Amino acid sequence: MPVARKAFVCILVAVGCTSTAATNVRQPLGAYLRPSASTGPLVPLRFDTSASARVVVRSKAAGLPPATYAAAQAEHGEAVFKKVCASCHPSTQFIGQQFVDTWGDHKLSDFYTLVRGTMPLNDPGNLKEDEYLGVLAYLLKANNAASGPDSLKPDSTLRTRRISVHVP
Questions:
Q1: pLDDT category of residue 39 using cuts at 50, 70 and 90
Q2: How far apart (Å, rounded) are the C-alpha atoms in residues 147 and 149?
Q3: Check: CATH 1.10.10 for 71-158?
Q4: How far is it, in rounded angstroms, from Cα 151 to Cα 161?
Q5: Which of 18, 90, 113, 130 has the most CB atoms less than 10 A away?
Q6: What gap in Å lies between CA 124 and CA 54, rounded to an integer?
Q7: Cβ atoms of 68 and 146 closer than 8 Å
Q8: Residue 116 pLDDT more than 60?
Q9: Across the strands, what pairs with 162?
């Protein structure tokens, strides 16, 4: 095949791949800040190196039992959310239909790993373990998940429970 024809075929394949890929694009997972978020001076984004995973793979886990939380843990988490999270994130992002559609029937550990490894934005991993777990408990409660006798713990139960939430 002549060189000019090879180049034309390569360009045609590249354009075809690009146009095909563009139609199969998903919205990235992420957290969005309020326009009025007081983020302060620009801080380079860093990830918590002690987090258990660098990449969060959201897996459907409909066969797992639902995660439950203790009421006291959810109350503590609500205070943490209002103090730390709500200054940047609107509550509607995590409470209501958007959260249910995004995280319903996924492993609790996927959401925990994402939050633990990337939040707070200016200092990921800086909250205490009970604060991260409290925020998760609060979000479960706020999205109508069932409570239980035990608090969430940073152990293997996070990987064996699913986020079972709904909008009333």
A1: low
A2: 7
A3: no
A4: 13
A5: 113
A6: 12
A7: yes
A8: yes
A9: 66, 107
17: CB partners within 8 A, 6+ apart: none
- Residues 99 and 143 sit within 8 Å (Cβ to Cβ): yes
The residue type found at 44 is: P
Give the C-alpha separation, 33 to 15, whole Å. Answer: 35
Residue 101 has pLDDT above 80, yes or no: yes
Altogether, the residues listed in the chain come to a count of: 168
* Six-digit token string for 146: 């069932």
Q: What are phi and psi of 126, to 5 degrees?
A: -85, -15
